[in-house]
Amino acid sequence: MSADQKMFVPSQPLPPERTGLLTAYDPGTRTLAAGYQIAPQFRPLPVDIVFEKDVPVTLRDGVKIHVDVFRPVGAEKVPVIVAWSPYGKGQGTSASVMGVFGLVGLGNDAVSGLEKFEAPDPAYWCAQGYAIANPDIRGVVDSEGDSVLWDRQEGRDCYDLIEWLAEQDWCSGKVGMTGTSYLAVSQWFTAAEQPPHLAAINPWEGVSDVYRDLVLRGGMPDTGFAAILQNGSFWGKNRKEDILGEAEAFPLMTELWENKIPDFDRITVPAYVVASYSNTLHTAGTFRAWRRLASEQKWLRIHNSQEWPDYYDPENVEDLRRFFDHFLKGADNGWEQTPPVRYSLLDFAGGDQVAVAADAFPPSGVTSTKFYLDGGSRVLTQTRPEPDAAAMYAVAGNPDLASFVTRFDHETVMVGYPKAHLWVEARGADDMDLFVLVQKLDKFGTPLQQFTAHNQSAMIHDLTERGGSILRYKGSDGRLRVSLRNLDAAQSTSDIPAHSFDRVEKLTPEQIVEVEIDLLPIGLVFHPGEQLRFIISGRSLLGPMMPGAREYVPANSGMHVIHTGGDHPSYLQLPIKDS
Which pTM was predicted? Predict the structure, then answer.
């Protein structure tokens, strides 16, 4: 049972750099007057706000958590928006949060400092007639119990909080959820529990499968960011889940990991999902969740930047308000006319297109097109090569990768899901960690990239040279440990392979095996003369996703052989939009 597989380690008190001005336990109700400024660098409040601090809420198993509630002054009943995360409800003014804003080039005056990290700002939402509920979840800061990480337990806990909020005398009975990253993931789990008073959700980029997205992407134990998440959050008085120990003890899909996948078939609430192509932690999970959730009313917006600047952009906040006004206040504001999908197309040269309307993703008129690898000429061709040819590299050598290039003679738009279908062989080893990347080149062959945030300083160049992939987009990537190549027939499609990760099939000498590797969804324009480079390597081509994360060392040795043409027609499948 998954409960028996769960591991815990002692938690620790919140450190000074994670402590904000409102962190200290101080229950009571007070009014913050219009113009109030929690500190000089933050936005002043536009209206009077009632602040109920450290309100106790008892969950169904008797565990008590503490919640901060911000709500408009007055007798009118208002809907409430929940921000569920483990980072500490008073961290908005902490050095760590202010540092993150600086990292991505956001001014701290974009918010009031009353918000949780990655969460809605009470200053804005209270002025629009909403309350904001910021809980310290199970096991965090002063709340009781042991904390868990992205788990169905969180869905049950948030269900209890939502139903408690709906009964408060100031609440209209309508509850919504919003937020990025952890706050997005918690919405999948909560909505799947179907709390009666949850009226709408807004997951803004977040994983939807802890095994596949966080700790064992492609079957590889790349836990650098998981270590930052576990060791740099879940501060409290009791215990926190040891996701690192679990990943080491259970490297295959078990009930533990299955319970960290939301039950998407039970998510029926209206959902406005926000995604990007460039977040190597969140992209795959956000698109997967959007595809699978059962809501009949669901919208997808794919932006062209990084989630924090996108989340606090005033135009996007207003867009979200229209969604919540419609579903939490019953406003007849035309939201239902919003296109089901609004996607972006990147060109890496300042000509991005955003908010391209469509009825689906991929949009209509997209054809999954095979570009065959030719190991002799190292080109990609839409004609299947007849002769057998192999491209190979020594994993400890230089070069330690193999590339294939094609040039486009006319405007070419790719939007949808790429995948790699490869025939591979390991010489001198019984397994392979494979990394693949679709890279855009200009007409001279120079790789093109794009910063996702406003900060393009020398420091950000350094941080993203061999890592920090969420801050600089270098192309669509994928990875797979070849011994875990077995496909999940129920989840796989012709465009999106999904692996079961429930069995190990080692390679034998001279064995050539067929593998499919899913790459992150793409929205990319190639102008005439520009080129596409497809790279296969035995090492991570992007480095760690976050600055400071431990770099993954692949379990590779010997020689990697990529077979092409003839009986082994390896190809890259790309979603090409009809011209």
Answer: 0.97
